[in-house]
Amino acid sequence: MTQNYNPQDIDKKWQHRWATDRLHEVKEDSGRPQFYALTMFPYTSGDLHIGHWYTMAPSDVYARFKRMQGYNVLHPMGFDAFGLPAENAAINHGIHPYDWTMRNIENMRRQLKSMGAMYDWSREVITCLPEYYRWTQWFFLKLYNAGLAYRAEAAVNWCPRCQTVLANEQVVGEGCCDRCGTTVTRKALEQWFFRITRYAEELLDYTGLDWPERTKTMQRNWIGKSEGAEISFRLQGTGTEPQEIRVFTTRPDTIFGVTFFLLAPENPLVAQLTAPERKAEVDEYIAWCRQQAEYERLALGREKTGVFLGSYVINPLSGEQVPIWITDYVLPTYGTGAVMAVPAHDERDFEFARKFQLPVKTVIAPPDWAGEELDEAYIGTGTMVNSGNFNGLASEQGYESICALLEKEGWGKRTVIYRLRDWLISRQRYWGAPIPVVHCQKCGIVPVPEDDLPILLPPDAEFKPTGESPLKYSQGFVNTACPGCGGPAQRETDTMDSFVCSSWYFLRYTSPETMDAPFDDARVKHWLPVDLYTGGAEHAVMHLFYARFFTKALRDIGLIEFDEPFTRLFNQGIIVYGGGKMSKSKGNVISPDDYVAECGADAVRGYLMFIGPWELGGEWNDSGLVGISRWLNRVWSLVTADYRPSDGTASDGEHEREFRHMLHKTIKKVAGDLEKLRFNTMLASLMELTNYLSKVKEAGAVPDSLWREATHTLLLLLAPTAPHLAEELWAKTGHTYSVHNQAWPEYDEELALEEEITLAIQVNGKLRDKVVVPASITEAEARELALGRERVKVHIDGKKLRDVIYVPKRVVNIVLAQ
Ligand SMILES: [Zn+2]
Ligand SMILES: [Zn+2]
Q1: Where are the alpha helices (DSSP H) in 228-268?
Q2: Closest-lying ligand to the alpha carbon of 165?
Q3: What digits encode the pLDDT tens for the residues 363-373?
Q4: How many CB atoms lie within 10 A of CB 583?
Q5: What is the number of the ligand closest to the CA of 440?
Q6: Measured in angstroms, how far is the CA atom of residue 462 from the centroid of ligand 1?
Q7: What is the rounded CA–CA span in Å between residue 363 and residue 93?
Q8: Which residues have a beta carbon within 5 Å of ligand 2, which is an ion?
Q9: CA of 34 to the centre of ligand 1 (A)
Q10: What is the distance in A from the centroid of ligand 2 to the CA of 438?
Q11: What global pTM score does this model have?
Q12: HSE of 655 in the Cβ direction (CA atoms, 13 Å)?
């Protein structure tokens, strides 16, 4: 019955059969526990490269594993289809964004199907289609009515090349547009915002979530919570309102060290507080500041600039008169746009004082301080000096005492502020969901009635980037009747950031056919929250953050009942090639198509999982793929060849015991690794099993029945990784279709029990630790274990690793560069 392994035929044959049989369509009423395994849907940029597969293939393996474990698994796929690149293609190549996008989707869908993933294609969602964006618009109205969407003038990030506003999250690196790399400038415009800041505190809470620390830290930093005090400084001698300015400080304990006072140039009080003789200089400075990007303004070490306004505030504690300056490193959006400057204890204030020869007054004594002038700001804690009644207190204690005094005298209060700003969601571009409001001369902003949705994108808009939305020039779109008074009115011509579309797509997968609501309530209740969400870490402060906000907002509006969209999150690493991240501009993009055509989908899937731990990624290497392909060929030969037990095997209990141990140990290991998403070590143990089976086969060491049990188990263990090969061999060995409907094999704990060994861990030849491990530990596992031991880490901390030498079952020696 031998016949060559021919993946090309097998792939097509089974993909066709699975589709015809609707093997992977999911119904809610299965009687099995549900599991929602979600992979971030791809942006419709064109071809899928191998990096997409790296996101998708391992998560498909996990979804298949859960399915075999008896879960009813929802594993859907769709397309994030609105956004700038489609429009840029329209401008550059004269293709309509819709055509460009749909053509790309067709190609990407073909590629995804060639991977043999178990996506339920009947649930596909495409965000640029009216049946989808109708509901994106509907959510906008819900947020608007709940006070969570508003319009305001704002100094916004503006990309001069893309001719659009960008969210803060889309300004990357040194203040560049994340789409085109152009340096972003600032511009004051009327914009739409979502009030994400209302959820700042709740977004800091990850209770019950299994998320990577790194991602949580990025989000926490993005929210930027600071605790401190808000303090009022009286304005000297203005005689007009207001009579005071409030500042936020994280260090109220340094208030006696205030020697000048700073306002953002944009602060509305600046004009009023500018003395007539200072006006020309102040105006000139403000005009100059407008040209500066935010990242430049905040850069440490940047030469300090500023202008004295010619007016003063009074320090409420010391009674001292303090001059007011404006400077660009105070941002209008942080705190109150005003700062009490304490040059002795703040680096930027220190630089500012040096530049303009303002006094520096030490009020927190550094250790061993003898009253000398400071060479640099001292930002630590210490004993309070030059601070009136507070002298001699520890600064932490002074913090509390000063806050108490401020509150008692009504001069201020303890407070918390956040760095997070509201989410700017309007875009002056065509290819997005139109914002469903109307501007009426009489009624102002009027939301479009829900029944009038969707507000369709007119197909005939002009795409030339002018800095204004292309929809402005589409007369048929703009001119409408006011839903309030019936008079003539204009539609809003901005569209929504495509991150709004992707903030709720995981809800739509549960019931994409629902026409009268964004989703079916019962089905969302059934499936959500998502059990496992996988995708790139680059989305930490964008998509992953927005989706959490959106979920909480919908909960408060009463549309859903859970607090968080994604219970477990896993961020995979990146596949690099030729030493760098793949990108079209570098020309090092690997397309999966050729490799699939040559080696079959299973080999490409397997190789991606074998390349390294999933969270780390790795370097693509053709010969590695060939290795996996060879291994699959060996599995083919092993299972299809005739097995002949040698005489007398029936009575050989020793071989049988070893054989069963090997089998059950592998089942345990594969299941354990899959649960932890450790695909590389899972495959290593499957390879070990096949090597073992090859030897057993040559010797004919076990009875036929046991051999058949082993190959049967091997196919089940292999099914998630190599779904086509496993299905073909399952059929060839006389089993009934389909291997993917089989239960995951159980193991016997007793039989799986491992022999244990003690591994010595050395650093530069010196014994530093010992650890008891299963005898079957692989080299990769031993290395990882050794490098992660606390007692070893202290010896390698900060030093360069030169080599790790593994003596199997005995020693790991970590060699450091001297
Ligand atoms: Zn740009
Ligand atoms: Zn009206």
Answers
A1: none
A2: 1
A3: 999 988 888 99
A4: 11
A5: 2
A6: 19
A7: 64
A8: 440, 442-443, 482, 484-485
A9: 42
A10: 9
A11: 0.83
A12: 19
Q: Determine the angle formed by the axes of helices 97-114 and 592-599, rounding to 10 degrees.
A: 30
| Whether pLDDT at 117 is above 70 | yes
Q: What is the mean pLDDT of residues 153-176?
A: 79
Quick: pLDDT tens for 324-344: 999 998 988 777 889 999 999
The candidate with the shortest Cα–Cα distance to 359, out of 347, 370, 372, 344, is 344
- The DSSP result for 696-728, as a single string, is HHHHT-S-HHHHHHHHHHHHHHHTTTSHHHHHH
Q: Which ligand is nearest to the CA of 429?
A: 1
Cα 462 to middle of ligand 2, angstroms? 28
Buried b (16+ CB within 10 A) or exposed e, 351-384: bbbeebebebbbbbbeeeeeeeeeeebbeebbbb
Phi, psi (degrees; rounded to nearest 5) at 692: -65, -45
- Ligand 2 centroid – CA 190 distance (Å): 20
Which ligand has the shortest distance to the CA of 442?
2
Separation of CA 516 and ligand 2 centre (Å)? 27
Can you tell me which residue has the tokens 């006389």? 734
Centre a 10 Å sphere on the Cβ of residue 740 and count the other Cβ atoms it contains. Answer: 20
Nearest to 35 by CA among 114, 109, 120: 120
- 747's CB contacts (< 8 A; 6+ apart) are 664, 665, 667, 668, 671
C-beta of residue 423 within 8 angstroms of C-beta of residue 546: yes
Virtual CA dihedral for 341, 343, 346, 350, nearest 10 degrees? 120
pLDDT tens for 41-100 read 999 987 888 889 999 999 999 999 999 999 999 999 999 999 888 888 777 888 899 999
* Percent of the chain scoring above 90 in pLDDT: 68
CA of 680 to the centre of ligand 1 (A): 39
DSSP-assigned states of every residue in 118-134: ---GGG--BTTSHHHHH
Residues 739 and 736: their CA atoms lie apart, in Å, by 8
Ligand 2 centre and the CA of 439: distance in Å?
8
Q: Is 816 exposed, middle or buried (0-12, 13-18, 19+ CB in 10 A)?
A: middle
Nearest ligand, CA of residue 444?
2
The closest ligand to the CA of 181 turns out to be 1
